[in-house]
Amino acid sequence: MRVLTVNVVEKLIPGPKETGLTAIDKRPQAGRVQVGELGLTGDMVCDTKNHGGPDLALYAYADEDANWWSAQLGREIPTGLFGENLRTGGLDITGALLGETWRIGAEVEVMVRAPRIPCITFQHRMQEPHWVKRFHQAGRPGAYLKVLRTGSIGAGDPVEVLSRPDHEVTIGVMFGQQEPAKMQRMLESDVDLMDELRETAQRVVARA
After folding, report:
1. Which of 12, 145, 157, 175 is the right S-S partner for 110, CB 3.0 to 4.6 Å?
2. DSSP structural state of residue 167
3. Contact at 8 Å (CB) between 139 and 175?
4. CA dist list (Å): 3 to 63, 76, 85, 142, 206
5. How many angstroms separate the Cα of 177 from the Cα of each of 8, 33, 64, 136, 191?
């Protein structure tokens, strides 16, 4: 399991009229990049209402899922096209548990926080019919990460899973079916959850 590329914004590009410029255009960096609590040095967030902050500091996407999309769409999915900061290899991001922790390289430690929710900017970026719906249906959202320990990372760095919490809600489950029983067990565990996800889980359990 390793990092294939580390990507930061190349330049701000026009997004949908409602949101103006967007920093979704990420490109791979040579050498090592510093990682702080708010993400990569040199990166940027335009829509700070819906993106960025400590809980959404890094966005990771698996090369295996990008290759799947490439076959589905009949086009290349170069690293950074989805706006990801990290393109990984050999790491099951969809199967990662909310709250599990990874070490990236020798220094950086992160926590899996939430699946990526597709938005109008992503739709505009991809220029694919019904992209938001298709992305939801595919169930390969990638994961947002919180930085627990700062440092530097670079292409080729190994990724090690340090800990996995005692529940069954993966990135894929949170993004997809959201089974009540699994949500209940997650709420009963001591996992550190984002407020929005805790509230979602409580609503799912209440409706069951």
Report:
1. 145
2. S
3. yes
4. 10, 19, 10, 14, 39
5. 32, 36, 22, 11, 20
- Taking only the tens of pLDDT, the chain with its 208 residues reads 999 999 999 888 888 866 688 888 899 999 999 999 999 998 888 776 777 789 999 999 999 999 999 999 999 999 999 999 999 999 999 999 999 999 999 999 999 999 998 988 898 889 999 999 999 999 999 999 999 999 999 999 999 999 999 999 999 999 998 999 999 999 999 899 999 999 999 999 998 7
Neighbours of 172 (CB within 10 A): 18
Q: Which domain holds residue 46?
A: 2-177
Q: For residue 22, is it within any domain? A: yes
Count the domains in the chain.
1
